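S.,

Sequence below, as promised.
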Amino acid sequence: MGRTPLGRMLVQEGRVDEAQVRSALSHRARWGGRIGEALVAMGFVSEQVMLRALARQLGVPFLEIGLRRIPPAIVRLLPAGLIRRRRLLPVALLGAARGPLVVAFCDPADLAAVDEARFAAGMPVRPVLAAARDLERATARSLEGGDGEGLRAIELPPDPGPMRLTGSYWS
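The prediction came back faster than expected:
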């Protein structure tokens, strides 16, 4: 039995109507991406609603990491390079030291990423879905101690006035 398409799931739940799904499909055909992203970008559903439906479709839990701190010992169970490259983050260890390791993914359907995390951890992995931005912030807090808001603003010198072009090219 195949997965129910995300658009159909949201229609059945009364979150969107058929016309909105068709609009999102047209948006996706023109601009690329996934239907869930199009539904959110067009304002038909919130990101949370879409992610919860996606988690149900994939058969994995949805995790809101928020401001929760992840114990450094858990984060260290996977290499930092893998965490950054695959956009994933270990969040909990169930049972004893043999796992499974709960890992938050932006795309838990990426079986290569799940397998790579399992191999690197040396134990079973239980994937969960997390919002990309939430995962980025948690990763920044966990690996760099930052807030995940990106680069700090740089201070520029005072405006010297209009620019004058000089040199033989401009003469």
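Residues 147-157, 163-171 have pLDDT under 50 and may be disordered.

Coffee later?
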